[in-house]
Write a structure and sequence with these properties.
Elements (H helix, E strand, L loop, with lengths): L6 H18 L7 E2 L1 H8 L3 H13 L3 E4 L3 E4 L10 H8 L4 H26 L2 H5 L1 H13 L3 H17 L4 H5 L1 H13 L9 H16 L2 H20 L3
Antiparallel strand pairs: 1-3, 2-3
Helix pairs in contact: 1-3, 2-3, 4-10, 5-10, 5-11, 5-12, 7-8, 7-11, 8-10, 11-12
Length: 234
């Protein structure tokens, strides 16, 4: 018998597999599957099948229709800022589409956010980017990928959450998801490009000086490098 501690893991695994099928189009829009079919396919209880269905519904990937079962929904219904959905899409065969849309989101938001931070954040908050940038160089040049990733997430989160714009701040988890996703699916080089490290330092120095225009320009360099790397994805 499955224990209560095992059930959430089973539920998440089932939901991820079914969700990926919807994302990749292997479960066509408006096609229905019953809880019984899910139970039989994955060898799980009805409770686990129902929990998986509820998770898919919470993400807008599927809905429940009386007498039909679980129905796959069109992409227009998906809760596309859900960080779990972002992760699933990044690890699917449709990862390029997700990377493209997230990169476009970053290019629209982060230059404005860093300019705002330079203008409105306190000197003490602005100064916090300087040691982060220095550590990014150390870990980047040293090939310390996981340490670099955590620092990079902290760097960009600090900018978004101190931009003075609550909508930018609300996107910090989504930006963290795409930064982590690029690393997890092998789209980050063993060592960051020198230009990217230089640009992070330029961002930190411009923000510290309160030079919003320079900070925005330096952030654009970072994002242009990300965009260029995306063009190289097969």
């Amino acid at each position: 018998m499955m224990t209560s501690s095992e059930r959430p893991l089973m539920h998440l695994g089932v939901a991820r597999e079914l969700g990926t099928e919807i994302i990749e189009g292997r479960w066509p829009v408006d096609e229905a599957r019953t809880l019984e079919e899910v139970q039989e396919r994955f060898g799980v209880s009805r409770t686990v099948a129902r929990e998986a269905s509820r998770l898919l519904e919470s993400m807008g990937l599927a809905g429940t229709v009386r007498r039909r079962g679980i129905v796959a929904l069109a992409a227009s219904e998906w809760h596309v800022l859900d960080t779990t959905l972002i992760d699933w899409r990044l690890h699917s065969t449709r990862r390029r589409e997700q990377l493209t849309s997230l990169t476009q989101l970053r290019m629209a938001v982060e230059p404005a956010a860093v300019q705002a931070m330079a203008r409105c954040a306190s000197i003490h908050v602005r100064a916090r980017l300087l040691p982060l940038a220095a550590e990014l160089r150390r870990t980047g040049e040293g090939g310390l990928g996981q340490e670099f990733l955590q620092l990079d997430i902290e760097f960009h989160r600090l900018i978004l959450t101190n931009s003075g714009n609550e909508l930018f701040a609300a996107l910090s988890d989504q930006i963290a998801s795409v930064l982590a996703g690029r690393t997890e699916i092998g789209l980050m080089p063993p060592k960051p490009k020198p230009e990217a490290l230089d640009a992070h330092e330029a961002v930190a120095e411009a923000v510290f000086r309160g030079d919003g225009k320079a900070a925005r320009a330096a952030m654009q360099v970072i994002l242009d490098e990300v965009d260029q790397a995306l063009d190289e994805v097969g």
